[in-house]
Design brief:
heterodimer, A: three-stranded antiparallel sheet, B: mainly beta, Immunoglobulin-like, Maltoporin, Chain A, 1 helix
Chain lengths: 112, 730
């Protein structure tokens, strides 16, 4: 029984160690629902990332990630690789050129 | 009241316009709030307005001849919704959805099974695609062939018209095995319609229609690779490739192969629980998309080989001289199919369509000392014209069709009887039809269809069909249907499992066409409970046969007597199904089914054997955002089934009068990645097996042997894993 408790505690320790989740807000160049979907979808499958939420009003994406597995810089880099600016980092121009029209600068200006 | 309308702050007015690709306004297009009865129709400028709409709602826009689209609500802007012309199915209006959903607007009670739902049953072909669907039952045909059969409304799958994109597909020599010839990864969607079908597709549907949509050249992944292995040692691989050839042409290549070389005998009766098998299946299709014309053509080649029965029986062994009791089935099939459509960009309700297919199939099978060989040649063509009378309130579709079926069959038996006989049947059936749609407002649709077919062997068929849909209010939709169906039975191929016994086959008379009437209706209700969608569906259908080919196992345990119905044959089917989202990403689907299926056999009206009267079904589906993690769990409880009498056999070979009830559990977990996913799952997780599914397995050539009296699983638990890799189109 005692061993069992120790194992449990050890396991719990592992879980807590793993679960050191940090959060970062990154300003992106997302402009529409499609951009939001693309960024959220891509980051969901990035190693170490737990939760992604992009707010189209502020264009900020809030990312919760496991500090041991990734860091904010890597996440910013990833966002540029799928065609969007991330804070001061510039997007990959080739990928940006291939984005759908509604995700490009200047789209949706007639909406308001 | 169950209904808890969410009267909150987040409501508003939605304004918008529905246009075609050419920016022409679509007049009379339907717009509807998903999951409620609220809706409207666009005016002469294509504009619409909806009031008091919740912020999180979705709008479903549809128009005859166009693909429906679902868009989220936006308040502050004038929505401009562009619908794309639906050249694939001129005649169908479907709602795109996440998993299974009841189509709100179709006059026929139908459910759409999307690709996402199909992924929940990772293996392997069409017969497994219905495992997470409550309306279609899947069961095992016998203890040797491993064939899975489907049932709808309590009746055998042969009474369902199974079509591929509108062209009748699984029928004739294929009516039983054909489900195994459609690889699961080829299917993009399945539309399951219950009850009488539209006259457009012919006279054959009695209990329902299952329409398969295959992967399309224009919207499939560039590459899709799938590999699968299970604990029996079965291997599967799939390669799908789609590419654009030019502005107007695109193509898709679908390649499937599977192999099982192990002899699986979990119950140690000396018989393989399922046969060794190998299959190669290749489909190549092309699509042309012009401004005024769309066309498609495809070619499919398949070869499938099975070797089962007693351990030691090998592929290619001669059944008649084999020391062991063997089972074999070799099928080779070549099919060319296609369609063409002429469109009128300024009159989207008008169109010409032509669908056609040419198929050749060669079949060589048998069991023990019995052999069945056959070839089938089929020619099918259907020319459809659709238009309106005055305005879109009155729409019609009319056309002519032609069907040719040529069969050459040979049956050789050296067991019980000494027979070597050949059968030839050439059926030529020109036909014509007219279907009128009356859509006075968004709540009511009435569809009345009639067709006449001139069968060269059996005379004229008159097929009336009637469908009605009525939206009572925002929560309830009522549907009713009635119709007649005909089909020509194929005595041997439809019941291959009956060859797997020592029973003497006695064909008492020449089979006549089967004729049945089907009547039924459904009530679909949608509510919002705790801000989540709840749907409850109740349906009832009654099928009554005027003639049916009877396979009588009840006269005695030494014979199988085949004759035309003498007396009554009917099926009552009732289903109650409910779906609810328990929490974010967690959905539950639960269903109860009641079947009362009776036929006159051995001069007595009695329950049809091997059919449960009661059945429960529960499916739990969980998915995290973007399907990073997915888990599925399906539980099915089958009530007792009547079994044919075996009391004239020696005591040790007798069976009980009814089977016990039993439950089956399937489960699957998958993890998504950017490139695809990996899945692990189990079928028949509880490892439930029918005890001694083969009667007198020690003496397969003796007079008590019977491998056809199967009511439950023969093979036990299967664990499987697989991988899917995708590269999207740029």
């Amino acid at each position: 029984m005692r061993k069992f408790v120790i194992v449990l505690l050890l396991l719990a320790g592992c879980v807590t160690a793993n679960a050191q989740v940090e959060s970062v807000k990154i300003k992106t160049s997302a402009i529409c629902g499609m951009c939001k979907e693309a960024i959220e979808r891509d980051l969901t499958f990035e190693m170490g990332i737990k939760k992604v939420d992009l707010d189209l009003e502020t264009k900020e994406v809030t990312v919760a990630y496991v500090a041991k597995k990734t860091d904010a810089e890597k996440i910013r880099k990833r966002i540029t690789m799928i065609g969007y600016n991330a804070d001061s980092l510039q997007r990959d121009p080739k990928v940006y050129a291939a984005l759908p029209d509604c995700c490009k600068d200047g789209a949706h200006q007639d909406d308001h | 009241m169950l209904a808890v309308p969410y009267m909150g702050f987040s409501q508003g007015t939605v304004r918008g316009k529905i246009v075609s690709m050419e920016n022409e306004p679509l007049i009379g297009a339907s717009i509807r709030v998903l999951g409620s009865g609220v809706g409207s129709i666009t005016d002469t400028e294509g504009n619409f307005q909806l009031y008091d709409i919740q912020v999180s709602s979705k709008l479903v826009c549809s128009y005859v001849g166009y693909t429906s689209d679902t868009v989220p609500v936006q308040f502050d802007v004038d929505l401009v919704i562009t619908l794309h012309e639906n050249e694939e199915k001129l005649d169908e209006v479907l709602i795109k959805g996440n998993t299974t959903m009841i189509d709100e607007l179709q006059p026929i009670h139908s459910e759409l099974i999307t690709e996402k739902e199909l992924l929940k049953a990772a293996c392997c072909n069409l017969s497994e695609s219905f495992e997470t669907n409550a309306s279609v039952d899947v069961s095992i045909a016998d203890a040797v062939s491993g064939t899975k059969m489907i049932r709808m409304l309590g009746l055998d799958g042969r009474y369902v018209l199974i079509s591929r994109e509108g062209i009748p597909h699984i029928r004739g020599l294929n009516s039983q095995m054909g489900l195994n010839y459609v690889p699961g990864t080829w299917i993009q969607s399945i539309d399951v319609g219950k009850g009488a079908g539209s006259v457009l597709y012919g006279y054959e549907s009695m209990t329902g229609q299952i329409n398969l949509g295959f992967k399309r050249p224009e919207n499939s992944e560039k590459w899709y690779l799938n590999g699968y292995i299970n604990s029996f040692g079965r291997l599967e691989f799939n390669v799908n490739h789609a590419t654009k050839l030019s502005d107007k042409w695109s193509t898709a290549v679908l390649l499937h192969g599977n192999y099982l070389g192990n002899e699986v005998d979990g119950n140690d009766d000396g018989f393989m629980d399922l046969p060794k098998s190998r299959q190669v299946n290749l489909l190549n299709r092309y699509k042309f998309q012009g401004d005024k014309m769309v066309a498609q053509i495809g070619i499919n080649y398949m070869i499938d080989d099975k070797a089962g029965g007693q351990l030691g029986y090998r592929f290619g062994d001669d059944l008649m001289t084999s020391d062991v009791y063997g089972y074999k089935n070799t099928a080779e099939r070549l099919e060319v199919f296609g369609k063409m459509g002429l469109l009128f960009p300024h009159k989207p309700y008008k169109g010409w369509g032509l669908q056609y297919s040419f198929a050749y199939q060669d079949q060589d099978g048998g069991a023990g000392r019995r052999i069945h060989q056959g070839t089938e040649k089929t020619v099918y063509a259907n020319l459809i014209y659709q238009n309106i009378i005055g305005n879109t309130m009155h729409q019609y579709k009319t056309g002519v069709s032609y069907l040719y079926d040529g069969y050459d069959e040979r049956y050789i038996s050296k067991l019980r009887e000494n027979v070597d006989s050949t059968y030839t049947r050439n059926e030529s059936v020109p036909g014509l039809y007219y279907e009128y749609n009356y859509i006075p407002n968004e709540d009511l649709t009435v569809v009345a269809g009639f067709r006449m077919d001139f069968n060269s062997l059996y005379g004229t068929y008159y097929t009336p069909r009637l469908h009605m849909r009525y939206g009572l209010n925002e929560h309830f939709t009522l549907r009713a249907s009635a119709g007649k169906g005909y089909r020509t039975p194929n005595a041997l191929m439809e019941n291959m499992q009956l060859m797997l016994s020592s029973r003497q086959l006695i064909v008492q008379e020449i089979p006549r066409p089967e004729i049945a009437w089907n009547y039924g209706g459904s009530l679909v209700s949608n509510f919002t409970v705790s801000e989540r969608d709840l749907s409850i569906v109740a349906d009832y259908f009654y099928t009554n046969f005027e003639n049916q080919l009877i396979y009588d196992q009840d006269q005695n345990s030494q014979s199988l007597v085949i004759y035309n119905l003498k007396g009554k044959s009917f099926a009552h089917s009732f289903q109650l199904e409910s779906q609810y989202e328990l929490s974010d990403g967690l959905d539950i689907k639960a269903a109860y089914k009641y079947y009362n299926v009776q036929t006159t056999t051995n001069g007595q009206l009695q329950q049809v054997p091997y059919v449960s009267r009661d059945r429960f079904f529960v499916n739990l589906a969980y998915a995290t955002k973007h399907e990073k993690w997915q888990a599925d769990f399906t539980w099915v409880w089958n009530g007792a089934k009547r079994l044919p009498d075996t009391f004239d056999r020696p005591v040790e070979y007798q069976q009980r009068e009814t089977s016990p009830d039993f439950m089956l559990i399937n489960a699957q977990v998958s993890r998504g990645f950017r490139w695809g996913n990996i899945y692990v799952g189990a079928e028949n997780l509880l490892d439930f097996k029918q005890n001694n599914p083969i009667i007198d397995a020690q003496n397969p050539f003796g007079s008590n042997f019977d491998a056809s009296m199967v009511w439950g699983p023969v093979a036990g638990r299967v664990i499987y894993t697989g991988i899917r890799y995708k590269i999207k189109q740029k």
